[in-house]
Amino acid sequence: MKIAVLPGDGIGPEIVAEAVKVLNVLDLPFEMESALVGGAAFDAHGHPLPDATLQLAKDADAVLFGAVGDWKYDTLDRPLRPEQAILGLRKNLGLFANFRPAICYEQLVDASSLKPELVAGLDILIIRELTGDIYFGQPRGRRTAVDGHFPGADEAFDTMRYSRPEIERIAHVAFQAARKRDKRVTSVDKANVLETFQFWKDIVTEVGKEYPDVALDHMYVDNAAMQLVKAPKKFDVIVTGNMFGDILSDAAAMLTGSIGMLPSASLNAKNQGLYEPSHGSAPDIAGKGVANPLATILSAAMMLRFSLQQAAAADRIESAVQSVLAQGLRTADIYSAGTVKVGTREMGDAVVAAITKTTKG
Ligand code: NAD
C-alpha cells in the first residue's frame, strides 16, 4: 500500500506528522513517501506542484495531504500560488468526487455555534463535484495579470460550465452513497438563475430514476445555506457543484464544533484518493503546536476505508478519536470549561495510546 505524504504549508506538517504517527502504530504494510507541495515547493523548486510531487501522487494508491497556502504568496501570479497545487492534483488524478462528512460528536455538542438540540446526532454527508464548474472554466484576466492583479482592466470573468458526463457521474456517486445511509439525496443548485444549474438539476433528476429506493429533492443554494443553520439534521446526503459545495461544506463544518474535526476524501473513478482535512493551512496558528490534528487523523481513516480496503483499521482510528474526546481531551479550537486543553502532539499521542490500548485489550 503506497501512500504519498504531502504535508504542505502552515499547520500542514504538524497535523500530518500526527496522522503518520497514528498510521504507523497500526502495524500494516504501508510504504510512505513524502514530498513538498504548495508554498514549500514553490520556495524550494519555483513551482507549487513540482513534477516529482505529481508523479509520486500518481504512483501512489492514496495521497495524505495537509494543507497549502499562506498570505505571503498572495502577490504571485495565480498559476504559481500554493492553492494551484491542490487544483492541479485534483485535475491530474481525476479526483471528481469530494466527500465531506459533517458529524457532530456527542462530546462536542456544546462546541457548535448552534443550539445543542439542533446538532446533537448530526450526521450529514456533503458530496461536492470537484473538477468542473467555475473553478475550471475559461478565466478572462489571467493573461493581463500583473502580480496576480489587473491594474487598469475594465473587467474580469470566469465561466461556469458542466458537461453531462460530469454531472451524471457525481450524481451516481451521491445516490450510491445514500443507499448506504438514510437513502435521501438533496441536490443543491441555482436553477432559477443559472443555465448551468438547470442542466444540473435535469440530469440529477434523470439519474435519480435509476435509484427508485432513494428519495431525491432539489434545493436552491441560498435556501440550502439557510436550512443548514436552521435545521441541519433534515439532510442526509447533499450533492452539489464545486463552488456551492466549497461554501456549504465550510458552513456545515462549523455546525460540528470546529473545522479542525472534519476530514475529507477526494476520489477518482479507480478509488484512488486524496485525503485531507477540510480546513486550510491556518497560518495564524502555524508553528505554535496548537492545531487540531483530528481532521487529518480522521482523513487517514477515510483513506484506509476507501482506497486501501482496510475498514477494520479505519474503525480502530475512529473509535480511538471518540475515546480521546470521551476522556475530555481538547485542542484550543474545541476547548470548553471542564475539559483538558492539549496541544497538537499530545492529541496525536492520545489517539496512538487509545489504539494501542485496544490492540492490547
Ligand atoms: P483556514 O481553514 O486555514 O483557517 C480558518 C480558521 O480556522 C483560522 O482561524 C484557523 O486558525 C482555524 N483552523 C483551521 N484549521 C484548524 C485546526 N486544524 N485546528 C485549529 N484551528 C484551525 O482558512 P483561511 O484562513 O481562510 O485560509 C488560510 C490559507 O489556507 C489560505 O492561504 C487558503 O488559501 C488556504 N486554504 C487551503 C486549503 C487546502 O489546502 N485545501 C483549503 C482552504 C484554505
Shape: globular
Which strands sit side by side, in order, in the main sheet? 2-1-3-12-11-4-5-10-8-9
Number of helices: 12
CATH superfamily membership of the largest domain, which one? Answer: Isopropylmalate Dehydrogenase
If you compute it from the alpha carbons, what radius of gyration comes out, rounded to the nearest whole angstrom? Answer: 20 Å
Low-confidence stretches: none
Bound molecules: nicotinamide-adenine-dinucleotide
Number of strands: 14
CATH topology of the largest domain: Isopropylmalate Dehydrogenase
Largest sheet: 10 strands, mixed
Approximately what portion of the residues adopt beta-strand conformation? 15-25%
CATH architecture type of the largest domain: 3-Layer(aba) Sandwich
For the record, the CATH class of the largest domain is Alpha Beta
Number of domains: 2
What portion of residues is helical?
40-55%
Compute the separation of the termini in Å: 27 Å
| H/E topology pattern | EHEHHEHEHEEEHEHEHEHEEHHEEH
- Give the overall average pLDDT: 93
**Category from helices, strands and their pairing:** alpha/beta
Concise synopsis of the structure shown:
This protein has helices spanning 12-25, 39-45, 51-59, 83-93, 116-119, 164-179, 195-208, 221-230, 242-255, 294-306, 311-326, 344-360, and strands at residues 2-8, 31-34, 62-67, 97-103, 123-129, 139-140, 157-158, 184-189, 215-220, 237-240, 263-267, 273-277, 329-330, 340-341. The protein is an alpha/beta fold.
